Description:
single chain, alpha+beta, 3 domains, four-stranded antiparallel β-sheet, two-stranded antiparallel sheet, kinase, PTS_EIIC_1, PTS_Sugar-Specific_Components, transferase
Amino acid sequence: MRTPDSITAEAILPLVGGPANVVSVAHCMTRLRLGLRDRSLVQEAALRALPAVLGVVADDATYQIVLGPGTVARVTPEFEALLTAAPAGAPGLLAGAPAGPPADSTAGRLAARGAELRADRRRRNSTPVRIMLRRIADIFVPLIPALIGCGVVAGLNGLLINLGWLPGITPALTAIASGFMALIPVFVGYNTAKEFGGTPVLGGAVAAIVVYAGVAKVTVSGTALSPGQGGVLGALAAALLGTYVEKWIRGRVPDALDVLVTPTLTVLITGLVTLYGLMYAAGELAAAIGTAANWLLDHTGALAGLVLGGLFLPLVMLGLHQALIPIHTTLIEQQGYTVLLPILAMAGAGQVGAALAVYVRLRHDTSLRTTIRSALPAGLLGVGEPLIYGVSLPLGRPFVTACAGGAAGGAFVGFFSMLGDKVGSTAIGPSGWALFPLLNGSRGPVLAAAVYAGGLLTGYVVGFVATYFYGLAGLSVARARVEP
Length: 484
């Protein structure tokens, strides 16, 4: 029986070049990530025109189709089933597939301009540092669904504890919410080895040392180690070292002894280095990250929020936001929530405000208004790519004014942090309105939600006003003449 999700998968496959053009399939929270043999076979305009597609993002490694939370998890297995069933060289375009906006319409021109900007970004992103950041992101992105699920349970549990409700059930909820977080270094180690070409289970094995309770009996320079010391950073370093040790040993051991010698020496050598070096170093680094984040928001909260909220959209464009994923995870391990994510989420609020201003100001531009109407719900839920690549970035100035809205929202949240009202997220992944169930803070989830809502409203208003009065200067008349 065909479902809406299977129909979406059937529509996407020919538009990315058919089964023969698909090398790999994966998904994160919002995007279907495809490895393609030949990207010139992608019919991007038609792909964007599909009702379920919120946008596309192409980086050096994968071609990413934004479908949104939930939808992508249902469409991916349907897509994989089509690849399994379809013969190689299947046709490339379904009959009746939408052809996308006309090239001479405003939406068509903006789509073309967005494609040029993405191509230029891909060229600039092909640096060793950015490639490494993307690989680090690929380690942590698969963990996000569990982080979200456990984060929501933790938030619910905290609310019940604060209200004094259901005292008999809260210990069970604590165990459910905390189990994954207690073992997250193991999953990080597994994914690290997998990403860098090692044996995943060996990566998990050396990372498990970090959380093993028995490390408390190990002393380094006269000081006993603590279980979990170094957290995900220690696990990342241990698994990365283990991968290189494994490869080095495997290249020097006879094949007949490989199955015995390689894993033994990999675990032994890496384990000793982890215990007597990496755990301590990673623990100091993790502590410094937590201290720096708290000091920054306690003493320069408004300014820090202004800078972080204002620069996050450009960071996303450059791919540098991926460097924040281990930092978010470290803060969640230490404090139970990351204080950075709610501030960074304000960038999406500025983007929504800017898009609304474009919609109101360019009221005669029907194609652009249609694009905004279709992308706005996703933007409110924190999926900003359709608005970025379809509206603000191609127009130019609205992207800058969207950043101004994000800066204002970030300053609002940062100001309350200076007053002692820290706002944090118990998980990473969602943004916009979707972040509310994950909010917590120094004075509880209710006040955290109120401050976050105030930041969103500030971002919406400033993004709208800045775009309406400055971001569209010289554009309104020209755009109105395009489509009377």
